[in-house]
Recover the amino acids of this structure.
């Protein structure tokens, strides 16, 4: 009986020790902005050129601060709607996203233009994809997100 309780204590200490080693991420939604002008766009599907509307449907962020750099895990919810009168078949589209990293004076330090491919299943008018980019930014800076109708090359 005593060996069993010592074993349970050892396992508990091990698990508590592992938790302190793993870096902790805290909510930091105040360090990211999805600008209103880039929150809704019209896209063309890759298969047949039909139109689809895309918009932000919620953005949340977790941050881990290390010295002068903050590692951000961003979760971007999207809502994409297509016109079923144009096409009911399964189609794919490419959604460009601009991510600007600003310093403490709100000057653009760098930006990234990334693109995500997604698909509408056959007969479905609305999809709610979630994308998860990871960003490193200065400790006193912030991040701005914007949807774009096309990929912008730096």
């Amino acid at each position: 009986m005593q060996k069993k309780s010592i074993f349970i204590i050892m396992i508990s200490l091990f698990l508590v020790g592992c938790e302190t080693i793993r870096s902790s991420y805290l909510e930091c939604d105040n360090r990211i902005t999805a600008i209103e002008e880039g929150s809704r766009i019209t896209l063309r599907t890759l298969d047949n050129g039909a139109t689809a509307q895309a918009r932000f449907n919620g953005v949340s962020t977790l941050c881990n601060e290390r010295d002068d750099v903050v590692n951000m895990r961003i979760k971007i919810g999207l809502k994409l709607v297509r016109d079923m009168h144009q096409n009911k078949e399964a189609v794919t589209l490419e959604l460009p996203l601009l991510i600007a990293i600003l310093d403490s004076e709100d000057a653009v330090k760098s930006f990234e233009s990334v693109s995500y491919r997604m698909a509408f299943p056959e007969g479905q008018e609305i999809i709610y994809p979630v994308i998860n980019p990871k960003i490193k930014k200065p400790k006193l800076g912030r991040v701005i997100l914007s949807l774009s109708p096309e990929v912008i090359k730096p």
Q: What stands out?
A: The chain has a mean pLDDT of 85. Residues 25-147 form a domain with the Immunoglobulin-like fold (CATH 2.60.40).
